[in-house]
Write a structure and sequence with these properties.
By secondary structure, chain A is mainly beta. Chain A has two helices and 17 strands. Chain B is mainly beta. Chain B has two domains: 30 residues; 294 residues, Porin. The two termini of chain B are 35 Å apart. The chains are: A mainly beta, B mainly beta.
Chain lengths: 214, 405
């Protein structure tokens, strides 16, 4: 009986206009740290190497609404590629339970691994054309640092969140979170592994709230 | 009671390590410097190795110690610099108790430095000059402590033979029965470690093939002191090369060759009258193969070597090893290696043909646990057996704790 009720609720919610479910917006700006230097690739014993320069990845922040939200039945699969010996994107925020694929677009092996408590895994060495594409389901919230066992300089981050309401800032720190459900929440800005700023917000239907994280 | 205590210890180390890990990541950022709008980037990094060895006398391989237990700490610093996309410079400096494990005092060295110019983006050609590891074979890319699944090198890179580079043998009998176990550091292996000799190399990749050719100041068997250009000039250069084929990412095959004189200058007075050190050469022919797929990696190298020995003739040897590494979990992996070296015969001067060194086989087993991406513990056991002599078997236990920054 209870299951049937939930199914009805799900069916109704899928046909309701988004505006009725959540139409509030929060926008603002996060003060980002200074750009880091691009990494240096150690090529000492790779006597045959390409002469590419690794790109600088500008710092970005993730802004999210913290709270207890129902977990959707299914989540879209996300992707972190390895291209030109870097992770793209370098920072990926996802909701807990999301599957992330790691396609290798370089013409060499990669070996992605993480020792982070939120997700410990090692995908081993795999070819660019390997199918199925190696993937991992991130089911526990927290920060996951991606590394490559072959290319020491490679670093990537996956921020696993317990909320569906998150967005990445642009390189100037600006953000805009749309279609938020009304309520009293904590708005958080994740800046790096040691810095997460937060502010209490009252989100009201049809309203645009401006919040800055200086 | 001991097992829970050990488990608690490992857990505590791991928990602490995750905090320290963040510190190391920040240190890495701090040690990377970028100048001229990212056109010049310089990174300082390194490893701290704490090694412990327990073995029987005579000490195996290139370990030079009168005692059966040896503690060998080592600090290695690396400098990597990239200028634009075409110029790369690296250097390696070490503070330890000698290039190979010894019971001597502290030693500080600049082991490697090289400048590499890569004119084309596709890597078809690069030129490198300096003091750097040999292009021969496939062991060099994993010889550093963090990448090597073992604490020591394969047998061919560390087993001392009857060849010596400071004196020519005064008779075939002395050559064969010379006391090389007891004055081991006077004698040479076929290839001395990664052979950081000085010189110039060209290398590149053409489709599925890659090539590398080098001219160095000394031969593959030469000792670390000979690698410095201040010690040894280019009067008697050694030429080496490797041609590689990579049919796909999983497989890699290569053939290598090297040729050069192996005596040091101080050996000249001991040579037969009218002969020069350039008349006695080391020839090496090598084949290597490697395979990697998911959590398995396999490497093999096969070497045929010939030394031209004064008053003796040609001394031939064949050495090979097969090595496999498998990751059982993201942080725990094991490795197994079988090594063998077989020696040809030479005349002892009395009408008999005898092996010029003892044939031997060695099996190496190692396990590694990575606490974090910056700290690992390696344990190794070796069993070495001489097959053509009544020489004692040798057991080696070794442990190595490495912190990488």
């Amino acid at each position: 009986m209870r299951l049937r009720g939930l199914l009805w609720l799900n069916a109704i919610s899928s046909v309701l206009p988004a505006a009725l479910l959540g139409s509030a917006t929060v926008e603002g700006r996060v003060e980002l740290p200074k750009s880091r230097s691009a990494p240096v690739q150690a090529k000492r014993y790779e006597i045959v190497t390409k002469g590419g320069v690794l790109s600088t990845q500008p710092p970005l922040a993730v802004v999210y609404l913290d709270g207890a939200f129902p977990r959707p039945a299914s989540l879209p699969t996300k992707e972190v590629t390895q291209k030109d010996l870097t992770f793209i994107p370098a920072l990926l925020p996802i909701e807990a339970g999301t599957k992330v694929e790691f396609p290798n677009l370089d013409d060499t092996y990669h070996n992605i691994f993480s020792y982070s408590p939120a997700k410990r895994f090692d995908l081993g060495r795999y070819r660019p054309e390997e199918r199925p594409i190696p993937s991992v389901i991130f089911d526990k919230p927290g920060l996951v640092t991606l590394r490559c066992d072959i290319h020491e300089h490679m670093r990537g981050l996956i921020l696993v969140l317990n909320t569906p309401y998150f967005v990445m800032t642009d390189t100037a720190g600006r953000f805009r979170l749309d279609k938020l459900p009304p309520g009293h929440y904590t708005l958080k800005a994740w800046i790096d592994s040691r810095t997460t700023k937060e502010k209490a917000v009252d989100v009201k239907n049809g309203q645009t709230l401006h919040v800055d994280f200086p | 009671m001991k097992l829970p205590a050990f488990s608690l210890c490992v857990f505590a180390c791991t928990a602490c390590a995750f905090d320290i890990d963040d510190v190391f990541d920040r240190l890495d950022n701090a040690l990377t410097v970028s100048l001229f709008q990212d056109n010049l980037r310089v990174r300082l990094s390194g490893t701290l190795d704490l090694e412990f060895y327990n073995f029987e006398q005579p000490a195996p391989g290139l370990i030079d110690s009168r005692t059966d237990n040896l503690f060998d700490p080592r600090l290695t610093l690396f400098l990597d610099a990239q200028l634009g996309s075409q110029i790369y410079f690296f250097a390696q400096s070490r503070v330890d108790r000698g290039f190979d494990p010894t019971d001597h005092g502290a030693d500080i060295r600049l082991d490697e430095y090289a400048l590499r110019i890569t004119p084309w983006q596709d890597g078809r050609f690069s030129l490198q000059i300096g003091k750097f590891a040999t292009v021969v074979g496939n062991w060099v890319p994993r010889h550093l402590s963090w990448d090597n699944p073992f604490i020591n090198a394969p047998l061919v890179y560390e087993n001392v033979t009857a060849i010596q580079d400071k004196y020519a043998p005064y008779s075939p009998l002395y050559f064969v029965y010379g006391p090389y176990y007891y004055a081991k550091y006077s004698f040479n292996p076929v290839i001395w470690g990664p052979s950081y000799a000085s010189g110039i190399s060209v290398a590149g990749k053409l489709g599925r093939f890659d090539y590398a050719v080098e001219m160095k100041n000394t031969s593959l068997s030469s000792r670390p002191e000979s690698w410095n250009v201040t010690e040894n000039g280019f009067e008697n250069p050694t030429f080496s090369g490797r041609l590689g084929l990579r049919p796909n990412e999983a497989w890699n095959f290569g053939v290598s060759a090297s040729e050069g004189s192996y005596f040091r200058r101080e050996a000249e007075p001991t040579l037969p009258p009218g002969r020069d050190i350039d008349d006695y050469r080391e020839f090496v022919l090598g084949q290597d193969a490697s395979f990697a797929w998911h959590h398995l990696q396999v490497w093999a190298e096969f070497y045929e070597a010939r030394f031209e020995v004064p008053r003796v003739g040609n001394a031939d040897t064949f050495a090979y090893y097969i090595e496999a590494k498998y990751k059982f979990t993201p942080q725990f992996f094991g490795a197994l290696r079988w090594n063998q070296q077989l020696f040809g015969t030479v005349s002892d001067g009395y009408g008999h043909n005898v092996h010029w060194s003892e044939d031997l086989g060695r099996i190496d087993i190692a396990v590694t646990y990575r606490f974090t991406p910056h700290a690992q513990l390696k344990l190794q056991y070796d069993f070495q057996h001489e097959t053509t002599a009544p020489g004692d078997n040798n057991h080696l236990f070794a442990a190595q704790f490495t912190v990488r920054f």
